[in-house]
Amino acid sequence: MRILLLLFLIISVIVIRAKEYSLNGIVKYNETLKPISQSTILVSFNNLEITTDTNGYFSLQIPETDSLTVIISHPRYTTQSIKMNIENNTVVEIRLSPDLAKLDKLFVTGQRNNIDIQKPQMGMVKIAPESIKKMPVISGESDVMKAVQLVPGVQFGHEGTADIFVRGGNGCLWICSIF
User: How far apart are CA 149 and CA 128, in angstroms?
Assistant: First the structure.
């Protein structure tokens, strides 16, 4: 009984620890031999899919198998299928040819909503009276100048001056309208 249990454990370990090999490669343009980035590599054995890096390289870990099909595709090139046996670490160089049947140009059209802009209001911030009333109050009354100071990019000048600096500008170049 012990021998059967030991034999079962040994066989389980061998089956579980199947060998894995690396499949490394580069995808290049057939005519200039320049690398093709963003090519898709699909392994049909286990539906594993990866994308080549900016230099056209890819790397996969594949279990040992008798045969598998690797499909290489890219939107601007012809898709290529390669059948191979993985019995050790493998390095491949794949060359793709341009797909002349695909469109050279793509036109994107759309409709623009006609927005009637009377006057641009860049650089203008409106502070609603309700938001000033909701601010925490120290002295018992809402402070308009404190609300202005809390706007991003606004800083008050030194003590004793009435300057307000907006995003580092000059202290006298601002307008405050109270409605």
Answer: 14
